[in-house]
């Protein structure tokens, strides 16, 4: 339990009728959240799998010493599975405690080897991952950029991922760009569009002098086109 016993209490509303206190326990796979007061009831316990957590943050001063958790639990819908964003903020007894918790959670999310004796600080974290986002603003009847700003970029920021966003301006723009850029600067290339932009990126990778290494670059596609058949096929194949 980073910070010792006592846990972390939630952020209070301006005029709370009763303050609630919580104890948080962190394991390698879950965050256990136990409400201590008022009297524990039916919803007093929450078991949050780290596999559903995309990130956390501790806002800088003068903001209160909060630990903010962002996660996307799966929910059922008529066809398949959907995920909805959930946010919880807990008010810590001190900023140092909140920062230790934030560092500890991020270490586990990034796969940093830790033990119960680890002193959690941000210095343990590897550099932020870097993504190159390529957006075709004409995709999805011209709504791709709007979807990117309202849905995609907030998730990327919550996951503490740095990125560079480029809007394509013409046919084969992405192909030419990928053919020339320095790929080691990026951990992955994300296409925010339909199927056509992905074809340009793959062709650009294969036309590079170092194509044998370049084609190993992780490439993702976020379905913001009109049909999105390829993204649908990838998800279906992945179960």
What's the CATH class label of the largest domain? Alpha Beta
How much helical structure, as a percent, in the residues? 25-40%
> Number of DSSP helices?
7
**CATH fourth-tier homologous superfamily of the largest domain:** Probable inorganic polyphosphate/atp-NAD kinase, domain 1
Gyration radius, in Å: 21 Å
CATH architecture of the largest domain: 3-Layer(aba) Sandwich
At CATH level 3, the topology of the largest domain is Rossmann fold
Main structural class: alpha/beta
β-strand percent reads 25-35%
User: What's the total number of strands?
Assistant: 13
Largest sheet, order of strands side by side?
A: 1-9-6-5
- Note the gap between the termini: 35 Å
Instruction: Give the overall pLDDT as a whole number.
Output: 86
Sequence stretches where pLDDT stays below 50 over 5 or more residues: 1-16
Biggest pleated sheet: 4 strands, antiparallel
Order of helices and strands: EEEEEEEEEHEHHEHEHHEH
Shape, per Cα inertia axes: globular
Q: Could you characterize what this model shows?
A:
By secondary structure, the chain is α/β, with parallel strands linked by helices. The chain has two domains: 22-124, PH-domain like (Roll); 130-238, 3-Layer(aba) Sandwich (Rossmann fold), CATH 3.40.50. 28% of the residues lie in helices and 28% in strands. The protein is built from seven helices and 13 strands. It is globular, with a radius of gyration of 21 Å. The two termini are 35 Å apart.
Lay out the secondary structure.
Layout: E1 9-10, E2 21-26, E3 30-37, E4 45-49, E5 53-57, E6 66-71, E7 74-76, E8 81-83, E9 86-91, H1 95-109, E10 130-135, H2 139-142, H3 144-158, E11 162-167, H4 173-180, E12 188-193, H5 195-206, H6 211-214, E13 219-223, H7 229-237
Parallel strand pairs: 10-11, 10-12, 12-13
Antiparallel strand pairs: 1-9, 2-3, 3-4, 5-6, 6-9, 7-8
